[in-house]
Amino acid sequence: MRGVPRSLACLAALAAFVVSSVGRAAWVETRVKAHTATVDVARSGSAEITQEVVLGVRGGPLRSLEIQGVDPDAVLAEGASAVPTVRYGTPTPIPLTLARQDDGTLRIEIEREKGLFTGTYTLRFSYRTELLARDRIRRRGTSAELEWVGPRFPDGIDVAKVLFRLPAGPTTPVLSMSDDAEDAAMGSAFVASTRHEDGKVELELVRPHVARGEPAVWRILADPKSFDGLPDTAALQPAARAAHFVPMERPSERLAWALGAFLVALGYAGLVLLKWSLASHDFNSVSASLRALVPVSLKLRATLAGALLSAASVLGALGDHPTLAALLLLSAMALAALRAPGLVTAPRGPGRWFALTEQDAFARRRTKRRGRWLDAGTLPGLSLLALAIAGFALGSAFLAARSPYSALACLLGAASLLPIFATGRASALPVDRVQRPRQLLAELKRRLSARAGLKAVPWARIPDGGHDPDELRLLVRVANALEGLSALEVGVEHLPSIAGFFTQPFVIVRVNEDSPAQRALPPSVRWQRGRRSDERVAVLKALLPSAAALESLVYELAARLSDGEARPLRRAKATANSAGMARRFGVPSPAHNA
């Protein structure tokens, strides 16, 4: 028993050694989530810089870290701290020790024995720097340009903010914008707010993204009278005063913008014209007229659509008026959109019904339409649309590293393709009543062929004086049919809807008036006159547009209309439901009787 405490002591010592070893070699990962700086500038040109770095820590412990790109003449102030983010209660600040190194790196030591573990912390520290002595406040035309360079972060940051506090002057400070190549470092910075408080003016700038290792350069233009040591504006020569009014872009840049806007307008106007040309040919081939959503002439509509999209592209790229750019984009899309043609419900002429062979009735006839390349419902059109959207996505990914706003604007520009590929489609064409129901009727005939006592034959209507059928049905003969039953005809009706045409199969029951076959169906079934004066017709519609639902309905009707002894009474409820649907749909179209 004496050996047991000794063994436990050895195990405890070993565990302590392992834990200490693991602690010394612990894994830690840090990521800067946001950075905010306050640059409080005095009239003398010195500034007090206060920085807040939101740091995410995973693992731990974190005992020290370095921040690159701090002002080289920084005089560090005391009171630096790290404040943890907590859900409840008041967090306790953790003191920090700062040390500036010769290369401009700021080393931060965590003054807590256990360091920082997984969580989010806000690091706050301050120092003083001489901006005027370092030529960070200088004359630029009739204004004083103030520049401050923020620290660099290895992984970049999503949001960076700087609040400039300057002595109030006759004019309000603004964001520096010029044609200098150095100003490209400003990226997508914009003014978030401007306010006056305690004799100072505050200008808050925001950058939505700073790339990896990029120094965040901030420049503003202020009044020279806000600082001591700068020459007065009135002492400037006229040439120097004129230097303040600089163009927004170089002539080459203006030419590039104009050329890009022209190409966008020309390309979109050409797409609108091409879409109309191809789609109108397809619609005219089936005696349907294509209509635009905005009823103006084609040339005017294409020109306006291209011009509006070009203007929306320029405004979206500049980012000055995003709402106006969105309205222009929607207007261009409305001008490019097409609407469904008006359907003319004129009665068709007389014709005769003939039995066809399966090969003649169900043979697939391919019709290549010209508009398939700009129709998202076809394979070529869908492929072309996917390729175009992929191009917009690649452009957005390229711009994301420079400006998230520009990347989003580029991605939203892909919406201009919707009226080209999603309107004026082949699904809006009048339905071919021979080819559209072909597959459904072929499947139904195959199913009915396996039913004893039923025989199905393709049944086509050919107009008088014509050679091609204009409607295809399935004629079903019932063995041992009740007296007065002429036939069962299965057809497909296509009803217009928002998404195109809705397929509605139906079964026509043809009987002689006041015959046993007519009395065999429930009283709820509505009858109307048929092809002859003594013929009555009832139309029953299937619950679903499928071959299985049609097979069930035809089999139920055949069971009721035959005089066989083996009648499937268990399907009587379903038959009554089908009859109820016929009553709900009301009187069928007179075309069913032809």
Labels describing this entry:
594 residues; alpha+beta; 11-stranded mixed β-sheet; 7-stranded antiparallel β-sheet; elongated
Determine the number of helices (DSSP H or I, runs of at least 4 residues).
13
Average pLDDT reading:
80
Low-confidence stretches: 17-25, 234-248, 565-591
Given helix and strand content, the structural type is alpha+beta
* Largest sheet features: 11 strands, mixed
Radius of gyration: 40 Å
Q: Percent of residues in beta strands?
A: 25-35%
Give the strand tally. 24
Helix content: 25-40%
Envelope shape = elongated
Q: In whole angstroms, how far apart are the ends?
A: 108 Å
Ordered list of secondary-structure elements with their pairings:
Blueprint: H1 3-24, E1 28-41, E2 46-59, E3 64-67, E4 75-76, E5 81-84, E6 94-100, E7 106-110, E8 119-130, E9 137-140, E10 143-149, E11 159-167, E12 174-175, E13 190-197, E14 200-207, E15 217-222, H2 238-242, H3 251-284, E16 291-292, H4 298-318, H5 322-336, E17 338-339, E18 351-355, H6 358-362, H7 379-400, H8 404-412, H9 418-422, H10 438-449, E19 454-463, E20 471-478, E21 485-497, E22 500-512, H11 516-519, E23 528-529, E24 535-541, H12 547-560, H13 572-585
